[in-house]
Every structure is written in structure tokens, then in C-alpha cells.
Amino acid sequence: MGSTTTHQDRLGDRANGRWLMSLLAIGILLGIGFRFFELDRKLYWHDEAYTSIRAAGFTRQEIDDKLFQNRIVPAPELQKYQRIKPGSTEADTIRSLALEDPQHPPLYFLMTRWWMQQFGSSLTASRSLPAILSLLSLPLMYALAQELFASNLAALLATALVALSPFDILFAQTARQYSLLTATVIGSSWLLLRAVRLRALPNWACYSLAIALGFYTHPFFSLTLIGHGVFIIAYWVFVKKTKLRGHVTNSQFFLAVTAALILYIPWIYVLATNLGRASATTDWTRVSPGLLYLVKLWTLSFTALFFDFDFGFNNIWTYVLRLPFLLLIVAAIYKICRRTSSSTWLFILTSIFVPFLFLALPDIILGGKRSAVSRYLISCFPGVQLAVAYLLASNVKHQRFWQVILALVFTASVASCTVSAFSDTWWSKDLSYFNAEVAKIINKEAIANRSIKDTIVISDRGNDFTNMGDLVSLSYLLDKDVRLMLLSQSPDMERLNKYSAPLVLRPSEKLRSALKQNQRRLEPILESARLFRARRAS
């Protein structure tokens, strides 16, 4: 009887194993497919437009000086600034960043330029680069999970969670450096653990190179490096209980960091000489929205790794439906702390909480909303996915409850990605979120006015000189007959008076004042997007 039972158990284990491996394989393949599905569907976000502008070798100032001169231009004309500037070189791309966006290192933008030279500047071409780069995260996550847990199942689960993550897929389809940042965060973490285990100089050299690549990808890679430093110090002080000073591993770690910083010196110089510009460009993160706002965004950010349905920021169901995923994360961290080795749980905790606290504590104490920006928390997310993968791997083979949980997590991720894939916009589009709706309103008017060719949209540089990015974003969505009247800082009211009730997009206070003096009142059409109609005052 005992032999028969054991044989049946083995058959059951094999069946469960085959079911599980099939599910994971399907999940990974679906995640890859989602990354390349409808790449050009979502609106080209303000920041994505700037990616192409920088890569093409233009500066915002030179574009503004050409466009905002009381000119009327067809909407598609703006897209010429998304193509490589004639006669420009890679030096122009670097110069554009150094002068106007020094907080963004040049690696991804140079890669984009080289990509544009080969494949053009269409939306599909622009977004295919980050989609391909995002695939690097999958084998790197597998390697990292293997290094931590020495478990093929946990490694495959971690890979599948990254592959199907609504957050990761969303930014894999965004023409910015975030998919590359994710890959460098995961890759550098794997190389660190490998170097600590093997203690060989070539491994530390690879880790140093990974740090340098991370620095040249995004400044917030530094959060990952700080987490690594805290892990190394805590590991030797509290786990190994040895003196920190003079230990060979610590010396190798700090030598690797020093070598990476030496490689990064050219951009450190750029940052140091343009610190005022970098500070001005990031002023918006210093606005204090309050603790409740921060807590809401933290909840949305961390749960978006598994579930990303959005019913509105102030809708209670947005948070109620995410509560199970929040509980799953808490349970996973608890399991990691209780069941894994000291070095494993210490690495997971430092990779999640050190980057998070470095952003969140200044926001809470001094004010700001850096930690409320989901993409700034990328350094934290692989640790969360690793913890959840370990929790599921520990239970899913033999417990029906956890098999159901795994199926529900995958279903939630697939459903979230499907809805997102067929949407024109998503929460990640930030400043440009309403551009798709704005374009529909303008295009509807263009169709109605086609016989008289009277569709004109008025705009200027805006209060914070950011309108150009959104106008470029809109140019991909607007009817070719739509014309833009781009006013200078001294608006030409005589030209504007030829139009009885033109549309006005995101007017600056100076333009509002000029319209008012010209006996025009702004009638809201879509106030959330600051789209108005300028009617003559009666």
C-alpha cells in the first residue's frame, strides 16, 4: 500500500510539474508578445518626443526659436524634429543633453540615435529599441534568482513575473531609458552576488562595468548602488560578524565602485557644470502633495508589478482590488525573512527598502513627490518580484491554494496587459495623458470645417516652456489639415483676429492676458488638458 501511494504521489508531482512548467513557458511567451504588440498604438508621450529630439541632435531652444514666431504650421511639420538633424553627429546629441537635460546621461540617447540611423524614426521603430532591451531583463532575472535561491522553479517564476509584469511591459513600450535601467539594476545585482561568492577579480571587473553602464543609463541607478553598499556592509558586520575594515570582499567592492565612478567622471563634470539647469528641470518633484497622496501612489506603483486596472485616482475600487496584491507582497517578504539564509533575505530587503527609503523619507520629512513617481522606484521592483517568486515556488507544487493564487496572479497580469495594449493612453503618459482625447476633439472639428479650412489651434511656449513636447506628441495624432498657430512671447493678435473662435491649447499666463486684452474669453472644452476655445467677448 505504501509503495502504491508513493508511486501515485510521484505521478501527481510529475503532472503538477508539467502543468507548472507549461504555465510558466506560456506566461514568458505572452510577456514577450505583449512587449511588441501594437507598439505605435499609445500616444507618443511628451518625454518620448524629447528622446527623439535629443537623439536627433536638436536642442529645445533652437526648435522653440524656429517654431514660436507667430507662425502657422501644419501639425505634421513638427515631426521633422524627430528625425536626425542634417549634418549633426553624436556630439550634438551629447551637447543637447549637457545643455538642457544634464540629469539624463547619454547612453540610451546615443543608442536611440544609432537605432534611428538604421531603422528610421517612426513610432514603431522608436519603441522597438526599448522593447528589445527589456528582453535582457528576462535571462538576467533568471540568473539572479538562481544565484539567490539555487532553485530552477523560483528562477523561472521570477522570470515569468518580470515577463508578464504590467509595469515592465508598459515601460518596455516607452521610448525612454527605463527598460535599460531595469536590465542594469537586475544585471548588476546578479554580478554583485556572483562576485561576492567567487571572489575573483574578473567578476568584480564585470560588476564595475555594470555599475558604469547603470550610471550612464539613469542617475537613479545610484539607488541600486547604495542598496548594494548597505548589503555588503551589513552582510559582513551582522551576518559574518567580521571586521569591516580591511576585508578583501569589501575592498574589492569599493575598488569596483571607484573604478566605475572614474569611468563616469566625464558626465560628473557635465552635471557639476550644469547643476542649476538640472535642478530647474526637476523642480516639479519638489511639490509637496501630502502623505495620503504619497501612500496612494506607493500602493499603485508596487501593485502595478502584478495588476494595473485603474478606475480613477480617487476611486476606492482602484485600491480595494489592489489590496490582495499588496498582501501578497507583504506575505512574500515575511516568507523570505523566515525561510531563507541571512544573506538572501538581507539582499532582498536592502534591494527593496534602501532605494525606497532614500526617496520616501525626504518626501515625508522635507516635502516632495520623488517617491510618488513610479518609474523612479525601478530599483525596488526586482526585489519585490524575487520575493513573490520565492513565496510561490515554496508552495505551489503541493498546495492547491497556492496554485490558484499563481493562476490568479497570472490572470490579473494578462488582463491588465490586454486592457493596456488596446488603450490610447495610460497613467504612465503623465503630462500627456489627455493628448489622445485632445486630438479627437481637434480632429472632429477639422472634419466639420474641412470645406472652409478654418481649423486652427493656438499655442505658445507655455508657462514652463514645455508645450513644444506635447505639440510634437499631438502631431502624430492630428489630422494633416490641422494647422497650429505658434505664438511668440509677443503674440500677434492681428493675425489671431482673422479667426472667430479658434482652439487654444495650454496657454501661458502671458497669452491668457493678451487674449483678455483683445476682448477674447477662454471657454473650457477639456479643462483637464487645458484646451479652450477663444471666443470674442460679447
Descriptive overview:
Helix content is 64%, strand content 5%. With 538 residues, the protein is mainly alpha-helical. The protein starts with a helix and ends with a strand.
What is the number of helical segments per DSSP (H or I, 4+ residues)? 24
Mean pLDDT: 91
Distance between the amino and carboxyl termini: 96 Å
| Share of helix, binned | 55-70%
Computed Rg: 26 Å
Describe the global form: globular
**What structural class should be given to the helix and strand makeup?**
mainly alpha
Largest sheet: 6 strands, mixed
Along the chain, the helix and strand elements come as HHHEHHHHHHHHHHHHHHHHHHEHEHEHEE
* Strand order, largest beta sheet: 1-3-2-4-6-5
**Which regions contain 5 or more consecutive residues with pLDDT less than 50?**
none
Strands, count? 6
Strand content: 5-15%
Produce the secondary structure layout:
Layout (H helix, E strand, L loop, with lengths): L1 H35 L9 H11 L3 H8 L3 E4 L15 H11 L6 H13 L3 H12 L2 H13 L2 H13 L1 H7 L5 H21 L2 H17 L3 H19 L8 H26 L1 H7 L9 H13 L12 H5 L2 H17 L2 H24 L15 H15 L4 H22 L13 H14 L7 E4 L7 H9 L7 E4 L6 H4 L6 E3 L3 H9 L2 E7 L4 E6 L2
Parallel strand pairs: 2-3, 2-4
Antiparallel strand pairs: 1-3, 4-6, 5-6
Helix pairs in contact: 1-8, 1-20, 2-5, 2-22, 6-9, 6-10, 7-8, 7-10, 8-19, 10-11, 11-13, 12-13, 12-18, 17-18, 17-19, 18-19
